[in-house]
Amino acid sequence: MSAAGKVPDNRLIITMGDAAGIGPEVVVKALAAAGVEGPPTLVLGDARVFAPLVEAFAGGLPLRVYPDPSPVEWETPAIHLLKLPGPPAALPQPGKIDPAWARTAMGAVARGVELVRGGVAGGLVTAPLNKEGIRRAGYPFQGHTDYLASLSGGADCRMMLTGGEIRVVLATVHVPLREVGGLLTRAGIARTIRLAREAMIRFGFPRPRIAVAGLNPHAGEGGLFGDEEEEVISPAVEECRGEGIDAAGPLPPDTLFYHLARGRFDAAVVMYHDQGLIPLKMVAFERGVNITLGLPIVRTSPDHGTAYDIAGKGVADPTSMIEAIKVAARLASGDG
Q1: What's the whole-model pTM score?
Q2: CATH number of the domain located at residue range(s) 1-157+294-336 in this protein
Q3: Helix, strand, coil % (nearest 5) of the chain?
Q4: What's the pLDDT tens digit per position in 44-60?
């Protein structure tokens, strides 16, 4: 229970994401599924986009629209929506990239960070953005992670994905595969291991066991298939072990996930995007959650994109958004 006058930590801000994608739909469906049992939430979006979705999918919950957060009745069962300034005049077309709506979506993220850092809520949940839309809108960002880092003063962030018993933290994110080896550094991998450990402690693991993947087949086979393991990864692991972190590696990527799925390790640090996301999505595609580590705020998102191919068809699965809201509420309230 919060102290008198203190904002409840489990209040969440939810951004609508790209309005031409499935973001608004899965937000409404997730909030309807949570009902009165879910955490108090405030959606940042456009009422014209949300009104028909609320009517179709909210199960009778009303849509309440506010010009600012001060009058929000957080505990009242409703879809509470905070209007965004200056949305495009024309509504988005489902499945069509629109730079103007991409700018609105990015503005919602910036506003969400501002509200959470200002103490209005305890965490931020973001619906998907479209990377090409971001680029066409003139933003120099790959997606949420580096944009959130910029909004937070240049925080050195990492992406963590969870799904069932699979938990991975990425040393690099959205970069061409041919560039990964050159981007790996001892300091960067060591920070990734430390952030993975801190995250797992928050999830209730007092002494988390962290597996660290090699980059190359068979973790380099003693330098036969590459020297990144001996030159960069192994020194980072030993540095962290010297700090008391239970880290193992570099381990061959083709066997690491066998042991992770069977409980030998609690989380894995992986060297590049697909190395971690392929096994996670294979076993927990609908339940995956993205958590940004290293930010001064709690931030989660569903582990899927804008899904333009099904946007506007009413068939989007909200399971990943439901899980993202649950995880954010747990982390924001300190329940792990």
Answers
A1: 0.92
A2: 3.40.718.10
A3: 40, 15, 40
A4: 999 999 999 999 999 99
